[in-house]
Amino acid sequence: MKKTILSMFLMIISMCIGMCVACGDKQAKDGGQAEAAVEEKAETASSEVADADKDDNYPDTDIREEGTPANELPGIRSAWASKKLTGVAAGKTADIERFALAFCKQYSNYKPNKYLCEYLQAPSKYDEETADYRVNNQKKNGYLSCSVNFDFDWLTDCCYWNRSNGHKLVAFWMTETHVSWDIDEHLLAFYDYDPATDTMTPEPNLTKKVDEAMRTFDSYHVVLPLKGKDIGLQGRMIFDHSKDDTLQPFYLLRWNGNDFKVENGEKLKLQIQTSDL
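Given the sequence above, the corresponding structure tokens read:
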């Protein structure tokens, strides 16, 4: 009888111990899950803070509004310097229209270039009242421009100069004015046209000269000449909101018969016959 009571007593103690162990395991498991949840929340919060910090850094984020087409200019900027354009005049007079057509055909993924191709290949079909773009053709002055500014402000300007060696220097300025946050989002491209080979050869050193002169600015604006021979430049401070664009220096690319010399052009600003900066 005593042995039976003792056995029952030991069994009860064993059951109690087992229940305590199970309870402890459950609490430990619940505690681990709670700790993991806290860590996950902390990581999520940290990630959100990092994303917020990134969004505040304009150059590292996509600041385009929803629905804005992709900017093709960085791709063109990285490719143009290594690509010659051949068969430019193709037996016709080498003029601004032929130069523009050769360039715009090569880089027709940029919208103003696409429209310029359409215009130059069928000018009689162009109707300013119904067209989705505007063309300013000053063929006599060696100047041609196409703008698509109804939605996203695309622009392609081009002109040329007669060089002392019988060649011609051709320039193209392309920009999207609503997204030109840095130099990679616009392009000032120069070509040497050789009438003997009917070829336009890139001159990236001239582009580098301009980029170097304007390196202290976030971006810059180019004014190709409707009249005269000099190019206007104005720096833009986009990320430093304490500096007004209108107060930035005005520079001039002074034509010397072969290429350009960068000068301070503030006093000569009114001589640039073009639209307001």
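The chain has a mean pLDDT of 74. Try to locate this feature in the token string yourself.
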